[in-house]
Design a protein that fits this description.
The protein is α/β, with parallel strands linked by helices. Helices cover 35% and strands 25% of the residues. It has two domains: 2-151 and 367-415, 3-Layer(aba) Sandwich (Rossmann fold); 156-365, 2-Layer Sandwich (Dihydrodipicolinate Reductase, domain 2), CATH 3.30.360.10.
């Protein structure tokens, strides 16, 4: 297996660092538009693991916006798998470039949605991933696999959903993704500051778009942003957090393979975070349409959302100033295998202190990066296989969760996951 990682930001950096602790691949080429970011990661691997491990890594430049250039870099390095680790706006170009190069493909966020033109808070328009699923026949004809939505959310929650359906429940009422954290970022004076732990570009896309819900009788439909608030009690000392509906890929993935009455995604954003997002939207700063701006060098055109992203701290850089834990999980309700009512929360927790110590990576991006590396290892060993455009639900969950939880000394990743009956 020869892996081409597109993007050396927080998640791409963490994918490479986690992969450096494994041996299932022949080579990893970490690429970015700014090749110096990829080179920095390779230097870190050399310093942490030595020249022998770093010798399996290389850094290169790539233009993720151009499918032909993506394909050319993949061919140049003989990539068998293209791992997309950049903003969702580049999904289509990387997706097309991987297929053109004859490589398999993985991503952690799917092709972007477009709200319904007249009833955005009732009906879906173009859904997340629609563009990719429309091309499934091309991938099947080529005998290639596109494993989509294989991060933490989406990704691990989808693996949990398959595990719950196969091993814990005889009938499912709701597959409800519930994510929350108690993370705090402080400035140099120790004051708590607004610093999103993930790409603000992606955060605005997810949180301000109409959330999608799936119900058996109605199929997919939408609601208003931040709708249906509920307080969910998260494990590992995180405690109760108010969660709201957010647009996310799990709701578009799970019903394609799993039988449930309802599928939802709710995220613990908090009142302050929601207030900031609403202000950004009110000021027009969430827009991706370029506007004309005067500058010292003359008029320039810039997308307001890119200005917001440039003004905030890089999520990859805030780890040293962050403390707390993040929890990703799935709350499943329905009937257990014994015929009795059952309610179970399956989850994984990442502590920022641990991920910074072991990988110099803040916990949110590290937790996102962990899961595609596990999936790549399962593909390399043949434990997972397939062709076409498939989500994590299309694969047996047990090999994934077993490898994830197995101690490092026994060849696993040493990441325990929990199943808490409620």
């Amino acid at each position: 297996m020869r892996i081409l990682i597109v993007g050396a930001g927080g998640v791409g950096d963490a994918i490479a660092k986690i992969a450096a602790t494994r041996s299932f691949y022949e080579r990893v080429v970490l690429t970015d538009y700014d090749a110096s970011r990829a080179e920095r990661t390779v230097r870190w691997i050399a310093e942490r693991h030595g020249a022998g491990v770093a010798g399996r890594f290389a850094a290169a430049h790539i233009d993720a916006s151009d499918p032909e250039k993506v394909a050319a870099v993949a061919r140049e390095h003989g990539a068998t798998h293209v791992m997309n680790a950049v903003e969702p706006k580049f999904v289509q170009s990387i997706f097309a470039g991987a297929l053109a190069a004859g490589a398999d493909y993985l991503d952690m966020a799917m092709s972007l949605s477009e709200p319904h033109p007249t009833e955005p808070y009732e009906k879906t328009g173009v859904k997340l991933g629609d563009d990719q699923f429309a091309q499934a026949g091309d991938w099947e004809a080529a005998g290639r696999l596109a494993l989509v939505g294989m991060g933490v959310e989406p990704g691990l929650s989808d693996v949990f959903a398959r595990y719950a359906v196969d091993h814990l429940f005889s009938a499912v009422d709701e597959l409800g993704v519930r994510d929350g954290a108690n993370l705090v970022v402080r400035n140099e004076r120790g004051e708590e500051v607004f610093a999103p732990s993930f790409s603000i570009w992606t955060t605005l896309e997810e949180c301000l778009n109409p959330p999608v819900v799936w119900q058996r009788e109605e199929g997919w439909f939408t609601t208003a942003p931040f709708s249906e608030p509920e307080v969910f009690d998260f494990p590992a000392g995180i405690g109760p957090v108010e969660c709201v509906n957010v647009e996310h890929e799990e709701v578009l993935l799970m019903p394609r393979w799993l039988d449930a009455q309802r599928v939802t995604f709710k995220y613990g954003l908090g009142a302050e975070f929601i207030g900031v997002l609403k202000t950004i939207e009110t000021l027009g700063m969430a827009s991706t349409t370029p506007i004309r701006v005067r500058s010292a060098a003359g008029p320039v055109e810039v997308a307001p959302r890119d200005v917001v992203a440039a003004a905030l701290p890089d999520p990859a850089s805030i780890g040293p100033r962050m403390e707390g834990k993040t929890c990703a999980g799935l709350w499943v309700t329905g009937t257990g295998k014994d015929g009795a009512p059952r309610s179970t929360y399956l989850y994984h927790v990442a502590d920022n202190a641990d991920t910074m110590r072991d990988f110099d990576s803040q916990c949110v991006v590290w937790q996102t990066a962990l899961n595609p590396v596990i999936a790549l290892e399962l593909l390399a060993t043949g434990a997972w296989s397939g062709v076409g455009v498939l989500g994590p639900e299309a694969f047996d969950a047990k090999p994934f969760l077993d490898l994830m939880a197995r101690p490092v000394q026994a060849g696993g990743y040493g990441q325990e996951w929990g199943a808490e009956d409620r």
